[in-house]
UniProtKB/TrEMBL annotation:
Cited NCBIfam families: PRK06019.1-1, PRK06019.1-2, PRK06019.1-5, purK
Required co-factors: Mg(2+); Mn(2+)
Gene Ontology BP annotations: 'de novo' IMP biosynthetic process
InterPro entries the UniProt entry points to: ATP-grasp, ATP-grasp_carboxylate-amine, ATP_grasp_subdomain_1, PreATP-grasp_dom_sf, PurK, PurK_C, PurT/PurK_preATP-grasp, Rudment_hybrid_motif
Protein name: N5-carboxyaminoimidazole ribonucleotide synthase
Pathway given in the UniProt record: Purine metabolism; IMP biosynthesis via de novo pathway; 5-amino-1-(5-phospho-D-ribosyl)imidazole-4-carboxylate from 5-amino-1-(5-phospho-D-ribosyl)imidazole (N5-CAIR route): step 1/2
EC number: 6.3.4.18
Amino acid sequence: MTKIILPQQTIGIIGGGQLGQMMALSAKEMGFVVGILDPTTNCPASQVADWHIKAAYDDSKAIEKLVAKSDVVTYEFENVDAEVLVKCTELGKLPQGLELLKISQNRKHEKSFLSQLNLPTAPYEIINNQDELKNGIDSLGYPSVLKTCSGGYDGKGQVVIKHEKDIKSATSLLHFGECVLEKWLTFEKEISVIVSGSSHSQFEVFPIAENRHQNNVLHTSLIPADILEDCESQAKKMAKKIAKNLQIKGTITVEMFVTKNGGLIINEMAPRPHNSGHYSIEACNVSQFDSHIRGICGWPLPKVILHQSSIMMNLLGEEANRAKEWINQKPEWNFHYYGKKEVKDGRKMGHITILSNSLERTLEEINQTNIWK
């Protein structure tokens, strides 16, 4: 895509969650009209958009309507039916394209793509039935992780197999279709590398986040990641190689494991801005959402500058209510609430970003609040 989308033109976003909301906020600051397609009434993104088409993500008629009303279209998550977007691509309105979406939707395709680029992944086997599962475990050993090829996120759609007795419960995943069996990896840290690209053949990399999870959901991101300089350089190089190969327009995220000796293994990719990049709103000269909007609209990208080290904390479920009690006491904290009406256990209700001169002292300050019990 070579055309430039200018202020007062329309960006259509498929998905109305918090990522879509933050995309929309960036787009509105730049002067765009923003439309949302999402099946939920008063979803977070619709609260800040100009218009909202309430429809399912695989509703081809609704997608056609979104495309017709938009000058450019993007998506906030990867569980979108790629086939429904073919016409959008043919019209030149989907600068992200379909290749990255299809790759990131399916772990088998993702592993194959990374292998073709000679990028490191965990040893794996493709599993279609119980016999293949047993043979795969014989090959990879215990523990292993069985994951559905499609549809999983935040730890859903996967089972850790530690002993032979776990095999029976793991086979339930095979009812959802083809799976990937991965060898369990011992690693020191989890990191994410966010890259934005534009039609100017520019690829800008954000400071690397070190991520800590609880119950398979991101809990804390520390920026910059505490990793060796060579490791940082290699991680950025690997992420950029992916972005260049796919000629990325907009923002993508590559999640990686750092091993004990500083080696890197790619875990998965997301064809969009990422939870771990929320820090960039306050901590950088340009946010991951700003770069995404610039990239899909054909604008040049500024080089990313980290103003200050930072910590991003997710607010899940009741944590969001407990955090409200600290708003009056923490003027230096940046509180973000997504406008979700119903509080559910594990549901991402918001996040807090704290700029810091000492990540260690800030972590202690966080612990003393008891927001995150």
